[in-house]
Structures are given as structure tokens and as C-alpha cells.
Design goal:
243 residues; 3-stranded antiparallel sheet; 33% helix; 8-stranded mixed sheet
Length: 243
């Protein structure tokens, strides 16, 4: 698969998950876009070649969720965003798109002290919800996560350390790609290597799911860990909001 095709596969995995979470098609100047019905509050184009301007997007944002974010994906080496596209919007953050070739073997650095369990009931879902909100610092609609639980292409995972829930993750499969989303660690367990132990189990899970690549969007805090595990940079995800 070419580097551009791999990058597009990352974008597709992420946007397809947002659609699965609940979204409504909207028209912006003759183009089809999608708007989240609730969290994760995204407004994104059906095509990467969308040409709507920031002014046109403002109209949709002002009549929808005030929290809505417009994602703009740019491939590695072409990370400049067209000024007209986001005129009137403000950059609220950036994430690094990354991928891992699952054909490459990776040896765990040590025996894990945590276990990853599929969320299978409301009690586990509530633990997942509480930890994920705490880890990311924003509200999550638990009803959205409930709709994902049990979906054939989704694994909602809770990390346990003995009897204590300490982390969260979502795996979502599209084609030969498994995307990693919402990897979070409870504040009380941060700085103890929990994220690395989770990753060293999540990577084999993706491989066992007969995927060829694992993909994610990394914050600056997680970038170093992912690169140590062999993930390669693909591009940037720029998040824009209303001014």
C-alpha cells in the first residue's frame, strides 16, 4: 500500500468511527459533510477534497453544536492548511497521524501487570466512561459508547490492574486496518508504565484480528511511546473551532 493510501486509510478509520457513533449528513455549498449528533462533536467532509471556506463552515457550526470541531487532515510533507478553508476559525489543537506495520514483530519489554478485558456489561462501561473522561479531561456521552459495545468491528477495552480499573481503549477495524482510539490512563495510575503495557497487548490484538496495519492519532504526550514501539508519522490532524 502506498504512503498516501495508508494515510487515507487512517483518515477513513477515524471518520468512519465518528459516523458509527452517530452523525447526520449536512450540505455545505453543494458538498456533503457529516455532523455528529452529540459527542464527539465533529463536523467533517465526506471527501478529503472538500473546498468549503471557513465562512461557510461557520454558518453550519453556529446552527449546530457550539462545541463542534472541524478536523483538517494533511499528509506528511504537505502540512500547510489552506487559509481560506479555515478563515474565521481558530486552531484548537493538533494530533500526529501514525501507523504501524503489523508484519514487523515487537517483543514486550517486560511481563504485564495489567489485563485488558472487553467491556461486557454496564458496570464495566461505567468504569470505562469515568476513567476515559478523567484521562482526556472532557465529557463523553456514555450513550454513544453503549451503542458501540458489542459491534462486530469494535472492541471496547478496559485495563485492569488486579481488581482496579486503570485504563481505556477502543479498537475499530476497517478493511485491513485497526484504529486505536481513546487510549487513556486513570490519573492515579499515570507514570507507572500502564500505557506501554496496554500497547504491548493491543498490538498483538490488532495482529490477531488479521489486520495489516494499526493506526492512531497521537498527542504530544504519547508521541514518544508510539515511536519507541515502531509507529511511523503520516501527517497531522488539525482541529479548528469557532473563534
Amino acid at each position: 500500500m502506498s504512503t498516501t493510501a495508508l494515510w487515507k486509510a487512517n483518515v477513513l478509520n477515524q471518520s468512519a468511527l465518528w459516523k458509527l457513533m452517530g452523525a447526520t449528513p449536512v450540505e455545505v455549498q453543494g458538498e456533503q459533510w457529516w455532523q455528529s449528533n452529540s459527542w464527539p462533536y465533529r463536523l467533517w467532509p465526506d471527501s478529503l477534497g472538500a473546498s468549503a471556506t471557513g465562512t461557510e463552515l461557520q454558518t453550519v457550526l453556529q446552527t449546530g453544536h457550539c462545541k463542534s470541531v472541524v478536523p483538517v487532515w494533511t499528509e506528511q510533507g504537505t502540512n500547510e492548511v489552506c487559509a481560506d478553508y479555515v478563515d474565521g476559525l481558530t486552531l484548537s489543537g493538533q494530533l500526529v497521524q501514525m501507523y504501524l506495520d503489523l508484519k514487523l514483530e515487537h517483543s514486550p519489554s517486560h511481563s504485564p501487570s495489567i489485563t485488558l478485558l472487553d467491556v461486557c456489561d454496564d458496570a464495566m462501561l461505567n468504569d470505562w466512561w469515568q476513567i476515559c473522561q478523567q484521562a482526556f479531561g472532557y465529557d463523553i456521552d456514555i450513550k454513544v459508547m453503549r451503542t458501540l459495545r458489542g459491534h462486530s468491528d469494535v472492541r471496547l477495552l478496559l485495563a485492569m490492574q488486579a481488581t482496579q480499573a486503570v485504563g481505556t481503549a477502543v479498537l475499530y477495524k476497517t478493511g485491513n486496518v485497526v484504529g486505536l482510539h481513546q487510549l487513556g490512563v486513570a490519573k492515579a495510575a499515570q507514570g507507572q508504565g500502564v500505557a506501554r503495557q496496554m500497547m504491548e497487548q493491543l498490538i498483538p490484538m490488532a495482529r490477531q484480528w488479521q489486520a495489516s496495519y494499526m493506526m492512531l492519532q497521537a498527542s504530544s504526550a504519547g508521541l514518544g511511546l508510539y515511536e519507541k514501539l515502531g509507529f511511523k508519522r503520516q501527517g497531522l490532524l488539525h482541529n479548528f473551532r469557532l473563534l
